[in-house]
Design brief:
Length: 229
Amino acid sequence: MKCPGQDTQFWNASAIFEAACPQCGRTVEFFKDDTTRKCGGCGHRFVNPKMEFGCAAYCQFAAQCLGDLPPELVAQKEDLLKDRVAIAVKRHLKTDFKRIGRAARRARHAEQMVGAEKGRLAPVIIAAYVWDLDPADRPDAQRPEARALLDGLLAPPPLVDKVCAILGGQAPPESDMAREHALVADAAAIAELEEHGKQEDGASVTYSQIQTALRSEGGKAYARKVFPN
């Protein structure tokens, strides 16, 4: 049985439509199952503006169903995956609400910082969510608990390897991987400082604590905004 969304027997008159090329404005005809079309005027290839990517964003057979996936869909798959990781982490931690809250704060801070550090959003945020699923003193990129959770969500193996490498923190100091590891580590440190402040009845976080706890200059600058004195 074919996916109903792609089976032509379920189509109606709206299955064929026209869209304007975003580059030159020329009309381009689309079938509803086209992922992309090339403009006959300027040659620009663009994504089907009416394509329903919902199921393709998590289905392990999306590539076979839709053919070569455009970069925009690959990005959407990763964006939706990070949301599913958040839910999976909550289920994994069950009633450990303290760790669930800490994971959510880590991810929120990582998302705020990742733009300034020019890291890739999805692997950094996913790494923030699964940061403490495995022992913190494990120096390698194996991370069996984090890897099992991501494999259970059918995450692409290269993305799983990327997340686990960020967690491992064994990359050369000036590499993008090392910067991403430092970013997530700083997000974790900020979440812990927030927690410490709550335990100390709202005690303010000092400049000295920020300088000591955080690694990157970008993380320290962000932390000073989170904890203004």
